[in-house]
Give the backbone structure.
Amino acid sequence: MTKRVGVIGGGQLARMMIAPAVELGIEIRVLAEQEGMSAALAATAVGDYRDVETVRAFAREVDVVTFDHEHVPQEVLRALVADGVAVHPGPDALRFAQDKLVMRARLAEIGAPQPDWAPVRTRADLRAFLDEHGGRAVVKTPRGGYDGKGVRVVDHEAGADDWLAAFGGEPILVEELVDFRRELAQQIARRPSGEAVPYPVVETVQQDGVCAEVFAPAPHASDRVVEVAARIAADIAGGLDVTGLLAVELFETTDERLLVNELAMRPHNSGHWTQDGAVTSQFEQHLRAVLDLPLGSSDPVADAAVMINILGGPQGATIDSRFADAMRDQPAARIHTYGKDPRPGRKVGHVNVVGDDLDDAAYAARAAAAFFA
Ligand code: ADP
């Protein structure tokens, strides 16, 4: 019988599950926030993912519910589980991706390496943390942040007043300002029955808090870094009972320590390279994992893969008009688009180039992406 996967959220991550679903004969349905979203190519219902009855009705039509984002409220998730719906990842895992303070506390319990951190309720709390950490630190809103919004470097006790007020007595998060050499990301897929398959660790480069480039596998990563990154992800996936895809964002320090920055429990921008650069793409792997099917090989198909995000473009322009030029100029480039209206800084697509030389792949991918700038 055809398996039906329901994806909550109509963004590009849901959209990119459609192609592998078609290939595998899996039926995919999407609960989108509004009409005409990125994933509208799939059978799409439109409704509010915060409304229990809307989500219940959507869940009745599918064999498993999974996600394009982590914002579905716990009450809604728990209602589905109480109804007997298969939800992957489940609410007990997802809460660690929904709230950075809850995540930090849980990572401490399982012994995952992470920056020093503390909950902050008052200026005095922040002052104390700054005093202990050289006068500078990073404050974060525990919930609702994305692409660097909700993250700020502070050097004085009043630096988080607005967020403290907005959270009305609930704590926000403060972390040591990590002097990292670079940022890495480690993905792992895990099935409900326990099988877990890691991907190669990758390097991610952010611009203005947004992922801009990914290099896979991470260039010059030592054997130790490769091994430790995979072990951290396996410990977190198992320890937090994550099902589906988990991405662990990591800082690599100059003395080669790895510290966990944050978690995503769904396909992730750091894994888009797998569409063209790995035997099994993260999108196919996620579908297999949430359906508790055997996982595919995560081996790279070439020595190097580079992913460049296409960010924004002039308001009102459609990126279609530049396709032919990019295709003509860079025939090795694999162009992926999200069907979204370009707005400055918005992720509207990406380019993957796979090959035997990292610099050549990076050149070609950047050259192709530049046509859409
Ligand atoms: P978001 O949830 O918006 O993606 P992150 O927590 O990933 O926010 O932070 C965004 C970026 O801010 C990170 O990619 C990193 O470059 C920087 N950053 C976050 N936390 C720290 C930290 N403790 N020390 C130094 N830089 C940090």
Observations:
- Residues 4-87 form a domain with the Rossmann fold fold (CATH 3.40.50.20).
- The chain has a mean pLDDT of 95.
- Residues 223-239 form the longest helix (17 residues).
- The chain has three domains: 4-87, 116-176, 180-370.
